[in-house]
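Thread: "does anyone have the structure for this chain?"

Original post by V.I.:
We have the sequence but no experimental structure in hand. Need at least a predicted one for the grant figures.
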Amino acid sequence: MQEKTYPRTFNSYDTKKQRILFAPHGPDPVFFGIRGEDVGSLLDASQLIKTQEKPAGHMIFKSNQGTGDHLQNEIDIHSLRPYCSGMITGVVSVEPKIEKGGHVMFAIKKDDTEIKCAVYKETGITEHAANLIVGDKICVGGGIRKASRKHSRILNVEFFQVLSLGKKSILVNPACAKCKKHMKSKGKGQGFECVRCGKKSPKKEIKQVSRQIKKQIYIPQVSAHRHLTRPQQRLGTANKEARFDNSTPWFYANQN
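Reply from O.Q.:
Generated one for you, tokens below.
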């Protein structure tokens, strides 16, 4: 159903985890709920679901699911309030660290004020978050977790967008200009020497390395989406006013 109705419906099934997302897991009067762009697509999609159970009817709701409405406002980093949601644009000020459980923690700074950020393993974007370095400019969206005796206030990251990337460099053994090979260390404090021609160098060289992250937006995998999370296929899509066609029943009750 998801493949046949894409991109008019969204977040019904997680293909990576092989997990159904549009149906409750416990005893519930709602059999399933399909998220989509218009009434026709929802009704067409519902007809593709084959089951031995016969639904009593259907209802169509206009909602803000998949809109990202809760992350539209800019959070004031100087007056963070518990449970508030929104976005903060800043510069990475503390190198990402992988914590126990696979979660990634880092911090961003804006106007000399710093906020800790947490990217949880369940989001599926921890690998990308771990590739951030100090100096990267990013926009993070999420909610503020209340401080406790053990932890300060933390921004629980629901997405982050890389706006600019800093240069990453590492120290490597110097290269021999003649032999085009890296020199070998002669021992602590004794410098380096080419094993072929004997040329020497006193210290290591700085080498620029390519970054394993791009200037783009990173959002969680679909099974980690909240109801309001804007899915990949809706990024850059403006929400349009939707009106019900009176010829299409928005409510239907099976009389049998």
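V.I.: this helps a lot. The two ends are 26 Å apart (CA to CA).
O.Q.: and The CA atoms of residues 107 and 116 lie 4 Å apart.
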